[in-house]
């Protein structure tokens, strides 16, 4: 990757620096929370978004990020002109909001929205189809050996409309990743965009197979 990350210390605060389009992004991590650590899959997805900004033009697009973590992907998508809804668990939101606000204020056309999302729980109530339509779903390292893979699958399924594209980077560690991909392919078309064997990371583009409307999916939820 041509991007460069450099750990630094400013007073008592440790942060990771990332250079994007000549802008420095400072990411604060929290080692106490698994979701508040910057994982390599997020860097891979950010590099892809920057390198392919013409083909995957996020300007003025409605974008949602699942499992936003430290907020790096949300920040980069916002700098590329997207209207981003950045989501994660309640205990991660404080650090996520801090990073997003710190790195997008005065830099972006649209102010990113940081909000809670627990996969599978009241997704249709939080994002009703009458008012929420996403062009892209972004996700990095959301699949690993946690007990909520079924809920994650259902969340992808609900949020992904007929014209929605999913850009999803994941690191393969154990069998749950492989089995999730197999089940994912039952509902979605899947195209591999990157394969980085040295990092065990793959980047996918996905879109739904059936043409069932979101209204039908919401009614069935």
TrEMBL record:
Q: Signal peptide position in this chain?
A: none
Q: Out of the domains of life, which is the source? A: Eukaryota
What's one GO MF term for it? methyltransferase activity
Task: Name one process (GO BP) from the record.
Answer: methylation
Q: What is this protein called?
A: Methyltransferase like 21e
The answer, when asked if Nucleus is one of the entry's keywords, is no
Q: Sorted alphabetically, which keywords does the UniProt record give?
A: Methyltransferase, S-adenosyl-L-methionine, Transferase
């Amino acid at each position: 990757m041509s991007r460069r990350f450099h750990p630094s210390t400013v007073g008592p605060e440790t942060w990771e620096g990332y250079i994007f389009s000549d802008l420095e992004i400072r990411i604060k991590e929290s080692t106490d929370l698994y979701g508040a650590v910057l994982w390599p899959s997020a860097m891979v997805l950010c590099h892809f978004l920057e390198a392919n900004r013409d083909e995957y033009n996020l300007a003025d697009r409605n974008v949602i990020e699942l499992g936003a973590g430290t907020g790096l992907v949300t920040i980069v998508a916002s700098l590329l002109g997207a209207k981003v809804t950045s989501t994660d668990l309640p205990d991660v939101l404080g650090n996520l909001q801090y990073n997003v606000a710190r790195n997008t204020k005065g830099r972006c056309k649209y102010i990113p929205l940081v909000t809670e999302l627990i996969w599978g729980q009241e997704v249709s109530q939080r994002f009703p189809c009458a008012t929420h339509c996403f062009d892209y779903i972004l996700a990095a390292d959301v699949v690993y050996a946690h007990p909520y893979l079924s809920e994650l699958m259902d969340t992808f399924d609900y949020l992904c409309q007929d014209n929605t594209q999913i850009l999803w980077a994941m690191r393969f560690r154990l069998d749950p990743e492989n089995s999730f991909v197999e089940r994912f392919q039952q509902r979605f078309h899947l195209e591999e965009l990157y394969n980085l064997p040295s990092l065990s990371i793959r980047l996918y583009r996905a879109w739904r197979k059936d043409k069932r409307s979101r209204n039908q999916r919401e009614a069935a939820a």
